[in-house]
Amino acid sequence: MKKISGVLGLGLFFGVLLVSFASASVVFEGVFNPVYNLGDKIDATIRIVPSPNFEEIVLVRLECDSQSAEVYKEFLSINEETHKKIIIPLSRQLIGESLGTCKINVYAGNKSEAVSQSFRISNVIKVNLMNLEEGFNPGNTISIQGSAIKENGGNVDGYYEANINGTFLTGEVSEGNFEIPFYIEKSFPAGQYMIDSAVYEKDILGEIINSGKKIYFLKVKQVPTNVEVLLENMSILPGEAIKGKVVLHDQTGESIPNAEVYIAIKDSLEIILEKIVTKTETEFEYGIKNSEPPSIFHISVYSEGIVQNAEINILEKKEIKTEIVNNTLILTNVGNVFYNDTLVVKIGEDNVSILLSLGVGEGEKYLISAPDGSYDVSVGGMKKTLLLSGNAVGVKELNGLGSGVSLVTWIILIVFLFIGAYFTFMKIRKKRSFAKSKKVSDFLKIKPKVYKNAGNPSINTKDENNNLSARGGAGFFAGKKVELSLSIAGSKQNASIGCISLKNYAEIASGEGNVKETLEKISSIIEDKKGFIYSNASYLFFIFAPSFTRTFKNQKDVVLVSQEIKEMLKLHNKKFRKKINFGISLNYGGIIIKNEAGIIKFMSLGTLMTSAKKLANYSDSELIISDSFKENFDENLKGDVVNIGGVKAYKLEGLVDKNKHSTFIKGFLARQERDRAKEVQKAAEAKEKKIVEEDEE
């Protein structure tokens, strides 16, 4: 029994040994990728070790989650170790719908001899859209950047499809990158819009083998386009209040709430009476004085770079205030116009008419009389019962001195006033005599000075237009009439353009505090160099065009002029209390220009002016130049690179060759000294003139 058991155990051992040897005779060499995409090729090497001979049909199958497919078949007859390379193209024609987790199984006959490690076969493309975070303004063509990477990490060469708010777009994907151009209409509503994007890759037969889809959202910004002033009433009476609100509209006419708005209430002479800082869609109010004469008030509003004006009519108010105190009727003109009319006083059953002629705020007193008794007295809507006395029914005007003060008291008061006036006159006369004796020698040395309007006193030399706001900001730049056109036919040329951003425009709009004089000097500097000026609310553009300067190299003049303007504005802010908060930028680009009947008409091309505005707004009393300007400037500039909303620019420190421009800087400083000397001389002349006039009196 023990012998039989031993024989069986030995047989079982050799059987297991033979099976293990057979399964180990076929093995895979190399490492498989973790992921393959359709269209890839799998390179596999099989090492076969015969023992001692191998004659069998070798069958290779691709076995996946979804299905399996036969990918290789060959009869082999070998008696030595053999390495067999197998290439498996992952095409629909070969593997069908085999996807997911897969492995390769090698069969010898019907027996599995070797199994590869697991890997995945995918048809997925990962789609990614970029630069969508910030949002976009309407009225621009945007470029949405995208990438397409297969799950195996390889770049896609195919095509994309995108649907943006009903607009279907398609284009090429090359080396995993693509670009979707999309024009956002000017009236495109603000909001989030779905981008349904897809990327496809095809085989040589035109069949889609890999694809990917992704949904993104495009943000369209709400852009202010106009401002509206909504008044509760277009006409009001004095004593009432101007009530209204400011509404800021976007590109579709929708309102933009809670935006900061500056409001200036101005009288009929455009003099600012009140400045109000509030928010859009928030009611504002300004009370009108009772005595305000009939006129047209002006309301200027500024919000998000947009200016709007409105008018309100102050109506005529004809009103008499009536009071009765101790049988005395007191009548006061509390209206806003001269009162010249008849007022009826009813005493008992009798009517008495009073012819009134009262200026605004003036008043008169009348004594009411009637035969002794009690009477109902009514006048102007007021009714009162009085105990009256007298010979007849009537009203008698009291003299302007009043009825409560005796004549003797008034006489004494007048005498004292006369005596006081006499002593005051003598004191002033004594002072003038002293001043005359002291200055007589100097007076004889004064040369006669001719004044332009001395022969015509009716000419008013006062500047009636000292108001920047009233003239739209362009009154100081009246040398040439300039208009910005949206479409003109003219000469196309490259121009150098500067932009001055007046950041506290609402505060300096009146031109007071020497703001007017400083801006006029800036105008002279620009026009001396044959430039012209265009003003748009708080932005002042100065343009140097070859057709006016007679040279194509204007960049150097623009830089030097800009530096002089910057120094002039800084000097203004040191000398005067009314500061000008400013930024300056320079840009270079194409314009179309035409001189028609003395009017300069021009149109900027591309984003020339909008970019200049953007750079000037960024500037804090500095000179910012665009990359385009720098590239078209022959000389070297010193300055740091700045990034302004994705736009490359430079903060100019100066020209590299300082000595070359020292003459310009010295000339500028000399001009400033001359201006200061002229101001001192004018002040001295005015003082001397005043002394002479006092002596002549």
In short:
23% of the residues lie in helices and 44% in strands. The chain has 697 residues and is α+β, with helices and mostly antiparallel strands.
What's the structural blueprint in terms of helices and strands?
Blueprint: H1 2-23, E1 26-29, E2 35-37, E3 41-48, E4 54-64, E5 68-78, E6 82-89, H2 92-95, E7 100-108, E8 111-115, E9 119-122, E10 125-129, E11 140-150, E12 158-164, E13 167-173, E14 177-184, E15 191-202, E16 208-220, E17 226-231, E18 235-236, E19 241-249, E20 260-266, E21 272-279, E22 284-287, E23 295-303, E24 306-314, E25 320-325, E26 328-333, E27 339-347, E28 350-358, E29 363-369, E30 373-379, E31 382-388, E32 394-397, H3 407-445, E33 481-484, E34 491-502, H4 505-508, H5 515-528, E35 532-536, E36 539-544, H6 546-549, H7 555-575, E37 582-596, E38 599-604, H8 608-618, E39 623-626, H9 627-631, E40 637-644, E41 647-655, H10 662-696
Parallel strand pairs: 2-9, 18-24, 33-38, 37-39
Antiparallel strand pairs: 1-3, 3-6, 4-5, 4-7, 7-8, 7-9, 10-11, 11-14, 12-13, 12-15, 15-16, 17-19, 19-22, 20-21, 20-23, 23-24, 25-26, 26-29, 27-28, 27-30, 29-32, 30-31, 34-36, 34-37, 35-36, 37-38, 39-41, 40-41
